[in-house]
Specification:
This protein is an all-alpha fold. It has one domain (54-602): Up-down Bundle (Amino acid/polyamine transporter I). Helix content is 70%, strand content 1%. It contains 25 helices and two strands. The protein has a two-stranded parallel ribbon. β1 (168-169), α6 (175-187) and β2 (193-194) form a beta-alpha-beta unit. α14 crosses α15 (371-380) and α20 runs parallel beside α22 (539-553). It is found in: Membrane. InterPro entries: Na/ntran_symport, SNS_sf. The chain crosses the membrane at residues 48-66, 78-99, 120-147, 217-237, 246-279, 299-315, 327-352, 387-408, 429-450, 462-484, 505-526, 546-565.
């Protein structure tokens, strides 16, 4: 007879134990399939870090950063950039990656933990949508130059081509000849153009003077853009976690080319002039609102915060991966790459200043094509120039494609988690249709007015006001809705330690305030977008630009209103609001999902 008053539980037989063990193994296999098979997880220790390098180190570093730095006075831009880097880029980058890993969800579905902010996830998707629409156009530009580099004499080296006019100079003319050409042009209020610049505008882009002169399609760029989308599709059709070799190559190869470019750029005559311009802050420039606006938006753009991609990449991590270490490393790798690439660019600009006889701030037009004016110039002055020109433009192509692949993964992950039944089951078909849609959206940007349209979409849709607005509400939602303390605890649960307390202060106060004041700053000191000739775009194009910005902005208050109006209607408005911002006790994470299933098995 048992000594206690409770009911005696018979010990399980060996057959029951074997069945329980078999059931547990089956559950382990099923959970492993659910987590790794459906969503996919990085298989190697460095896969996640390399994926972030492939995403965050891209055209924003070697294409957008140098042209904004050039436009805003070199060193002055660096001062403003460093300010926003410390207060916003680092803390928000870490937060996005960590939350993605903790919740194991994309940018839209993760907001189930604080549903009133779900419009932020939709805003992330819309901004990614805008950016994805034009990245393959830039890849097409780079491919065009890559093919042209096989010529024994580069087409941008001479002024004897059908697209050149009387303003063309190569920089190799005798000083007396150059003076004569300049004098004749000055008499007619004209100035010289380099052969590199004319090749870019009159041959590659076949650019019209204004945005409303559509002109026609540049069919060569049309075909190359189509090829870019085919590459993106096949890089993703098995999932980014299975594209390991592609990710590693895209992450590491550009550094080899950047270093070669840097070494050659710094040894060119006049390189010191360019580097001096790059590093010397201009106090007058620091008083201009455009410098701070461009620096702030570039920080968010370059680090890829606000697009939802970092959340998606983090969601493919194993739950205990040290994401804090990788995120910190990535922030400094990203910033270092921008600075390194700019040293190379400004060394080349100094050389171009010496050869053309112009001040460095008048060498080229500070537009989206700066990299396509500087890189051809340095390639012309290298031994084995065909090889290096090919590699330079291959680098630009790779940087564009790997960023595009990662952004597409972020967008698709967000949509896939929201609609798993159809998008996960028919991934290849759905992904193909998405690529086709974006290809169609890119067609206006390979027209003769394409560079104007790309500038407009870049300024309004993929950065600027829209990005700042979305990032502000994202940080508020995570640090006040989900809770900065919960983020700290989540880090402790995942990696075994809490981040320094300064991050909690940054997440709750300084980072959202930085995004808010920068947004207000941009609105208060609004200036219409200008073309490379510093002429304002027509009024209707700026109205269209604000429409693009509003697409990602209105969904945030719009979804909050929709949620309060349609959910929990039996409660008062105050109770609905409190419920909408309250994180549920049974919040779903990668770890809690497995723990809950094992608990069910035990019972």
């Amino acid at each position: 007879m048992p000594s206690g008053g409770g009911t005696h539980q018979p010990l399980p037989t060996s057959e029951e134990t074997a069945k329980a063990h078999e059931a547990k193994l089956h559950l382990d296999e099923q959970v492993e399939h659910d987590e790794n098979g459906e969503r996919g997880q990085w298989s190697g220790q460095f896969d996640f870090l390399m994926s972030m390098v492939a995403y965050a180190v891209g055209l924003g570093n070697v294409w957008r950063f140098p042209y904004l730095c050039y436009k805003n006075g070199g060193g002055s831009f660096l001062v403003a950039y460093s300010f926003f880097f410390l207060l916003a880029a680092v803390p928000i980058f870490i937060m996005e990656v960590s939350i993605g890993q903790y919740l194991q969800r994309g940018a839209m579905e993760m907001w189930n933990m604080c549903p009133i902010f779900k419009g932020v996830g939709i805003g992330n998707v819309v901004i990614s949508f805008m950016c994805i629409a034009y990245f393959c156009v830039i890849c097409a530009w780079a491919m065009y130059y890559m093919i042209a580099s096989f010529n024994s004499t580069f087409p941008w080296e001479t002024c004897t081509n059908w697209w050149n006019d009387a303003k063309c100079v190569t920089g190799k003319e005798h000083e007396s000849v150059l003076k004569t050409i300049t004098k004749n042009l000055t008499a007619h209020n004209l100035s010289t153009q380099t052969s590199v610049e004319q090749y870019w505008e009159r041959r590659v882009l076949m650019q019209t003077e204004t945005i409303y002169e559509f002109g026609g399609i540049q069919w060569e760029l049309f075909g190359l853009m189509a090829l870019s989308w085919v590459i993106v599709y096949f890089a993703l059709w098995k999932g980014i976690t299975n594209a390991r070799k592609f990710v590693y190559f895209c992450a590491l190869f550009p550094y080899f080319i950047i270093i070669v470019l840097l070494l050659r750029g710094l040894t060119l005559p006049g390189a010191g002039t360019g580097i001096y311009y790059y590093l010397t802050p201009n106090v007058t420039k620091l008083m201009e609102t455009t410098v701070w606006k461009d620096a702030g938006t570039q920080v968010f753009y370059s680090y890829g915060v606000g697009f939802g991609t970092l959340i998606a990449l983090g969601s493919h991590n194993k739950f205990n991966h040290n994401c804090f270490r990788d995120a910190i490393a990535m922030c400094f790798i990203n910033g270092g790459t921008s600075i390194l690439a700019s040293f190379a660019i400004f060394g080349i600009l100094g050389f171009m200043s010496v050869t053309s006889g112009k001040p460095i701030d008048q060498i080229v037009k500070p537009g989206v094509g700066l990299a396509f004016l500087a890189y051809p110039e340095v390639a012309t002055n290298l031994p084995m120039k065909q090889l290096w020109a090919f590699l330079f433009f291959l680098m630009i192509t790779i940087l564009g494609l790997d960023s595009q692949v990662c952004m597409m993964e972020g967008l698709y992950t967000a949509l896939e988690d929201a609609f798993p039944t159809h998008l996960r089951k028919h991934k290849r078909v759905a992904l193909g249709l998405m690529c086709l849609l974006f290809f169609i959206l890119g067609i206006p940007m390979v027209s003769y007015a394409g560079a104007h349209w790309l500038t407009l979409v870049d300024a309004y849709g993929a950065s600027g006001y829209a990005l700042l607005f979305v990032v502000f509400f994202e940080v508020v939602g995570l640090s006040w809705g989900f809770g900065a303390e919960r983020v700290m605890s989540a880090m402790k649960e995942m990696v075994g330690f809490r981040p320094p307390i300064v991050f909690k202060f940054l997440w709750k106060y300084l980072s959202p305030l930085t995004a808010f004041f920068l947004f207000w700053f941009c609105i208060y000191y609004y200036e219409p977008v200008k073309d490379p000739n510093k002429q304002d775009y027509p009024w209707w194009s700026n109205v269209f630009g604000f429409f693009l910005s509003s697409c990602s902005m209105v969904v945030i208050p719009g979804y909050a209103i929709y949620y309060l109006a349609t959910q929990n209607r039996h409660l008062s408005l105050k109770e609905r609001f409190l419920k909408a911002i309250r994180v549920p006790d049974n919040i779903h994470t990668g770890a809690t999902r497995r723990a809950a299933e094992l608990k069910v098995l035990q019972h």
